[in-house]
Specification:
single chain, about 130 residues, mainly alpha
């Protein structure tokens, strides 16, 4: 029976050695995997820093562009206000011409003889001016 105890102890020792060998192999594989994961994370961190840097630069350029657009927009607003002023002036000028035309028409209707005389003198003056400029 003693031999059986030695054989059992030997089998247990061999099983323990095999278990330790497989445990060592498994731990080495796990170590390599963890090393690869660490390298991947380091690479990912560097790439993220690059992306963050580029994003910050892009944001700064976008802010500059927005400021430039706001400045140009305000300049255009003042330009359009100037155009509005010109339009108002033209409208007032047209109204003044209408008023003048109406007053001339009323005066012509009141005294047709003077109107005829004025037209004749105007025609004569225009002909003299044309002859002088030829």
């Amino acid at each position: 029976m003693e031999i059986l105890a030695y054989i059992a102890a030997a089998i247990a020792a061999v099983a323990f050695v095999v278990l330790v060998v497989y445990l060592v192999i498994t731990l080495k594989a796990a170590r390599e995997t963890l090393h690869n994961v660490a390298e991947t994370l380091t690479s990912l961190e560097q790439q993220m820093q690059g992306v963050t840097s580029e994003t910050t630069q892009l944001l700064a350029k976008t802010n500059k562009l927005a400021d430039d657009m706001n400045q140009k927009s305000s300049k255009l607003n003042s330009l359009f206000n100037g155009f509005k002023g010109v339009g108002d002036t033209v409208t007032e000028f047209n109204q003044s011409l209408r008023d003048l035309t109406n007053s001339v028409a009323k005066a012509a209707n009141k005294d047709p003889e003077k109107t005829t005389q004025a037209i004749k003198w105007g025609t004569t003056l225009m002909e003299l001016w044309k002859k002088k400029n030829k």
